[in-house]
Amino acid sequence: MAKKAARAKVKAMPLKKSAPKVQAKKTIAKKPAAKKPAAKAPALRGPTPAEKQRFTLYGFATSGPTYTAALMLSLCKHPFSYIHVNLREGAHKQPDYLVKNRFAQVPALRDGQLMAVQSAAILIHLSEVLGKFEGKSPVEKQRVTEWLFWAWDKLAIPVFRLRARARGTRQFADEVRVMYDTEARAAVSVLEQELTKSEWIGAKKTSIADIAIYGVLRYAQEGGVDIMHYPHVVAWKKRFEELPGFATPEQLLPMESRLT
Ligand SMILES: N[C@@H](CCC(=O)N[C@@H](CS)C(=O)NCC(=O)O)C(=O)O
Fold first, then answer.
1. Which residue of 24, 141, 159, 244 has the fewest C-beta atoms within 10 A of its own C-beta?
2. For the domain that residue 157 is a member of, what is the CATH number?
3. Ligand 1 atom closest to the CA of 117, numbered from 1
4. What does the DSSP 8-state code read for residue 77?
5. How far apart are alpha carbons 137 and 141 in whole angstroms?
């Protein structure tokens, strides 16, 4: 803080000086300007062939957990190949897919020799290897992991079951629907509380906790859970959708394979 204040003072001082001194400053400023070309902007280079080939995501276009993994890669601005696993035809139960995901589910992510499954575990893996969206301190990392577990325990199950019922891919009685609906709303209330205290979930900056939870809440409406009654959640969702690299499921997940 003291250093910042000192720097601010140094910057502020010339503004208060008279016109001739400002002119003198212009002459001095020419020297450092000449050195500038030495600093290259690495962010401008495109992905190398190795980066392009590194990740392959196996998934299905309407799968929320597949979207979560794809969204993470997109927010990290990392290219990836996408393999369409046709759940409708049972491709996820075939031996060639079971070697990739023993749980017979999508998503699965190949990172070189490593095959990662379970969307939350995929997020943790990517945050570690790409060094992005993890919590900064050990306490933040712990909180972020807790939110990942909570998201599946309390939010994803009711939201995805309600959505599956609405889409006709799962059947259950109306009283079960009411139970899931109550559970989903209780979970969104927990998020609303958290977001009254901070801009992001579990950390000062955007983390994989936000990505995991966005990947569920994106589909809440389809399951009949209206988040409009939770103003802090609505504001967070809007903030999230403005992040560089954000993309919708339709933009990220085609109904066919796409190689980089
Ligand atoms: N907890 C898993 C859930 C994955 C999941 O439910 N995938 C669904 C598609 S959204 C699936 O593969 N369903 C086929 C099946 O279970 O037979 C994750 O996060 O990856």
1. 244
2. 1.20.1050.10
3. 20
4. T
5. 6
57 CB near ligand 1 (under 6 Å): no
Look at residues 151, 138, 101, 144 and name the one whose alpha carbon lies nearest to residue 126: 144
Residues 106, 187: one domain?
Answer: no
The reply to whether 151 and 224 lie within a common domain is: yes
What residues are paired with 115 via a beta bridge?
Answer: 110
Alpha carbon dihedral 20, 26, 31, 36, in 10-degree steps, equals: 160
3-state class (DSSP) for residue 179: helix
Looking at this protein, which amino acid is placed at residue 185? R
Cis peptide before 138 (omega within 30 of 0): no
Global pTM reads 0.84
- Which atom of ligand 1 lies closest to the CA of 62? 10
Of the pLDDT bands very low, low, confident and very high (cuts 50, 70, 90), residue 146 is very high
Domain shared by 171 and 118, yes or no: no
